[in-house]
Amino acid sequence: MVPKILEFTMPSFSRKMWVSDQAREIWMKKFVQFAECWRQIEWLTVANGIRSCALFFISQQELAGLALVLRKLGLKTVVVSAHIQADQRQNSLCFRTVAGRAKDLRAFCKAWKLGDDETMGRLLGYPPCCRSFFHRVFVQEGLTDCIWPMGSSASESPSDAQTIYVNSIPELNPFWIAVGIRLVPHYACRFDCPKAASFAREFIAVGNEAGYGTFMETALEVLQWPVEWSCLHGIVEIRTPILKISQQSDFTRSKLTINLLSRSFPKEGAAGLCVAPD
Ligand SMILES: [Zn+2]
Predict the structure, then answer these.
(1) Could you identify which of 84, 126, 144, 198 might form a hypothetical disulfide with 121, taking C-beta atoms 3.0 to 4.6 angstroms apart as the criterion?
(2) Average pLDDT of 103-123?
(3) Which pLDDT tens digit goes with each residue over 191-212?
(4) C-alpha distances out from residue 156 to 105, 151, 172, 240, Å
(5) CA distance 152 to 154
């Protein structure tokens, strides 16, 4: 029997606990720098013709400046929703914004209003297999977190297993999204989806061309560390070598665990996570 995910959701939250001040000092700055360059890569992939539209969050202050930059490239932006972002000191307003050429933006905004996730996914360049996965998990099954279905489809464990072990193509590792580290803009249908992997490599190539090669290498390093993801009673814990992330997920009565196997480990990391044997 497949582990049951119940129809019950918790209020949204996300907390991070670092294993040491040293780990926090070294890595938090790198994460912030990477997130800034990733947002540029999001719209650069549109300017380079890799896909029609990009969807990302941007602060109120940054939006006007970005619109000027994009105009020179023949691109425009449209805000599709506004959000209050809570950080440690204050709440700030940020916008979910779509960037693209005028014709594609019209098509995206129409699809957004209709909730047409297939058209939005196509305009954002997501592979057909990942678009079908999104529709099944988020729309048909009504989940808010796709990590367990993503892991269970890539694992060789029995379908009723509550603890699974997976190897991920590093570019598709979704466990670091909460701190801004990712190399593909969407959740792949599996940890080893070949189409999503080649999409990610196009993003990395754009990042390298834009002079962000060091950031691409940093992300690839982080995405190869071991991770233990577990979910119980609507709360997920993501244990990594340098920090633990707790956040909201779908409600489960029994504990589900995904161990991401790895052979690399940061020197600032705390021991105790599963690393693949030789
Ligand atoms: Zn896929």
Answers:
(1) 126
(2) 96
(3) 999 999 999 999 999 999 999 9
(4) 41, 10, 18, 23
(5) 5
How remote is the CA of residue 189 from the centroid of ligand 1, in Å?
Answer: 4
- Whose tokens are 């990610």? That residue is 200
Query: In the block, which residue shows the tokens 């590093």?
Result: 170
Question: What pTM does this model have?
Answer: 0.87
Inside any domain, residue 182 = yes
Domain with 255, as residue range(s), is 1-20+127-278
| Number of folded domains that form the chain | 1
In a domain, 58, yes or no: no
Q: Tell me: the pLDDT tens digits for 81-91?
A: 988 776 655 67
The structure tokens listed for 255 are 């504990």
Percent of all residues in the chain with a pLDDT value above 70, rounded to a whole number:
89
Q: Output the CA 206–ligand 1 centroid distance in Å.
A: 21
